[in-house]
Amino acid sequence: MIVPMKKVSLVVMEKNRDASLEKLREAGVLHLEKRNVRSDGLTRLLDRKAKAETALGILRSYPVEKNAGTAPREVFSSGDRDGAAPPDLTARVLELGDEKKALQEQLLANAKERSRVEKWGNFDPRAFAEFAQKGVVLIPYELSPKGRESLPEGLIVLGQDKTTARVLSVGKEIPGESPWALPERSLAEIDALLADIRDKLADIEDQLRALALRKDSLEGEREALLQQIEFETARAGMETVENVPAEFTVSWITGFVPREDLGVLKRAAAENGWALMADDPEEWDPVPTKLKNNRLVSLIYPLTDFLETLPGYNEVDISGWFLFFFCIFFGMIFGDAGYGLLLMLIGIIAAVKTAKKGVPAGIKMLLLLSFSNLAWGVLTCTWFGMDTALLPDFLKRISLPLISGAVAAQSPEAKAIVDQNLMIFCFSLALAQLSVGHIIGIIRNIKTPKFLGELGSLGMLAGMFNVVLALVVSNDYRQIPFLPLSIYLIGGGFLLSFVFANYAGNIGTSILESFKNIIPVVLGIANVFSDIMSYIRLWAVGLAGASISSTVNTLAGPLLGNFLVFLGIILLVFGHGLNLILNVLSVLVHGVRLNTLEFSSHVGLAWSGVAYKPFVKTDKGSSR
Predict the structure, then answer these.
(1) What is the DSSP-derived secondary structure letter of residue 274?
(2) DSSP 8-class letter at 480
């Protein structure tokens, strides 16, 4: 459920602005209204934060072992060793990072130069100038062997390979050819320079590796800067009454507070002498969203937080329905009881290890999803993609005959019936979930004629469900129940939706809006068909995963009965491991899509929410 909010304005004395903001942060319930502000202090803080994040980015590439200790003082610059002030960790890391980058560029440039000079051997390029002072002008060239045949005689050939001849011309340049550029250093000097650069880089790597032991303090500095930035943003965003005596100057700030926490803010206002005004937010206000659900429904939060999806304040919270259908989608896409047991075992181990500190919601969600996977695999008699003939009889007996793989294996006709049943289940699941979306719409709009538009959409959905069954599932349309009635449902539903879908107090205006968008309105019928058809992906993706499992077993089977048994085990582990990864990706792509696109579009949900983040000193604020 979405927690109701109040829009609040606080007025404080200008002279107490900073102290009031500190007290407001201690209260920790006000979500500040976002403003675009500027100040010199904010600019400095943002610059420091950027540098701290850059330094963290440098250190994150250096893993830290447990019990590794702390960084020695020798890794800081000489100016930090006198103990007069604490070492500037950020500045030192950035300094080393710049040095490392410059040395890497030098290393690359000198390695490239060495590659260019290497074939000429180790010579002193300064000798050419010495010869020229004595009247002997030597000009180096790199020529193609074929081109050298047409050149004048008298060239000194120093070396030659398949592509290049290295020659010296005495006294004059070769017409039409560009001389080879002499290096600044000999090959030996370049090698010495490269070795010196590598030594310096190794020393910098050691220092950065040591400084990586201080990543926690750098993380703390970054968090502190974020708090200061939030404070300075709030301070700069406070508006002030002008043209009044300084002692009477006041500033005010606006934001949003959960209705249930308004009392906390009122007490803080009374204690600190603030003027407070609270009212219901207007429709256009950027009200943040705070969700509040029971422990079971809250298990979906790790997924929605990862996806950064949040309903708008004036939208509807579908967290419970999202979790319910996502569990079903997860089970159908993984579709293997063996995988379900494996995931459940991982979840149980993780839960046991984290039990003392409190099991994270993500692990609880994994246990719930693994149970769904196990249940679907048991019903379909699917265990690690094994041939059902090899499975114990009791596993076959506890499966559901309508969708059981054991039944499908009996004959091609039985398999066709099972596949048909699975497709019907997918489309029925579509009808159920999308109907929930429109029922939610009917309930929300029951006090206005707009609910008739939702009722019309529900009728179109029911009619199109029968059309899908007739076109996709059955070869005989007479087997589909209520098919003739579907035409009336689609037509009548379209008419109701056309008249009332845009209702906002006037039927004429609603009809006019539908005429303005006539093309999208007409295409809406096709969208209903495509939305129902989209659920067939659950069967198709599950079938693909089962085929991969079966193929892996087929390839590994012959290896398990001879001396190649270890190779067979490796193939099984790799193949099923890869299939698990692919299934996870499939769930994220398909299982999430059906909830956030098809279902959400029928609910009228745009996921436009802004997370509720109260102005608070510690990280106790949350969108939940």
Answers:
(1) -
(2) S
Residue 261 tokens, joined? 């926490």
d(CA 462, CA 466): 7
Could you tell me which residues are beta bridge partners of residue 165? 143, 160
Task: Render pLDDT for 240-271 as a digit per residue (tens, 0 to 9).
Answer: 666 555 555 777 788 899 999 899 988 888 88
CA of 282: how far to CAs of 3, 5, 254, 285, 315, in Å?
A: 16, 11, 13, 5, 14
Q: Going by C-beta distance under 8 Å and a sequence separation of 6 or more, which residues neighbour residue 408?
A: 414, 415, 418, 419
The predicted structure's pLDDT at residue 102? 93
3-state secondary structure of 359: coil
Q: For residue 241, what are the CA distances in angstroms to 99, 233, 248? A: 51, 18, 9
The sheet with strand 138-143 has its strands ordered as 138-143, 165-170, 156-160
402 sits in the region (left: phi over 0; alpha: psi -120 to 50; else beta) called alpha
Helix 483-500 and helix 450-468: axis angle, to 10°? 150
The distance in angstroms from the start CA to the end CA of the chain is 10
Q: Are 275 and 268 within 8 A, CB to CB?
A: no
Interior/surface letters 80-99, b for 16+ CB within 10 angstroms, e for the rest: beeeeeebebbebbbbbbee
The Cα 152–Cα 171 span in angstroms is: 13
How far is residue 617's CA from residue 517's CA, in Å, rounded to a whole number?
A: 49
pTM of the full structure? 0.76
d(CA 310, CA 308): 7
Helix, strand, or coil (residue 374):
helix
| C-alpha dist (Å) from residue 388 to 120, 371, 392, 410 | 71, 21, 8, 10
- Spell out, as residue ranges, where the chain has pLDDT lower than 70: 65-87, 145-154, 239-248, 474-483, 563, 618-624
State pLDDT tens for residues 324-341.
Answer: 999 999 999 998 999 999
Residue 159: in which H helix or E strand, if any? strand 156-160
Residue type (1 letter), 416? A
Q: On the CB side of 254, how many CA atoms lie within 13 Å of its CA?
A: 15
Cα gap 347→537, rounded to integer Å:
27
Instruction: Sketch the domain layout of the chain as residue ranges.
Output: 126-182, 297-603
- What's the token pair of residue 591? 């299982």
Cα separation, 309 vs 292, in Å, equals: 15
Beta bridge partners of 6: 257
Would you call 216 exposed, middle or buried from its count of C-beta atoms within 10 A (0-12, 13-18, 19+)?
exposed
Q: Please give the structure tokens belonging to residue 428.
A: 């029925």
SS3 state at 91: helix
Residue located via tokens 């809406």: 524
Q: Distance between CA 515 and CA 623 in Å, rounded?
A: 40
Q: What is the 3-state secondary structure of 16-58?
A: HHHHHHHHHHHHCCCEECCCCCCCHHHHHHHHHHHHHHHHHHH
Beta-carbon contacts of residue 499 (< 8 Å; ≥ 6 apart): 452, 453, 507, 510, 511, 514
**Tokens representing 60?**
């994150």
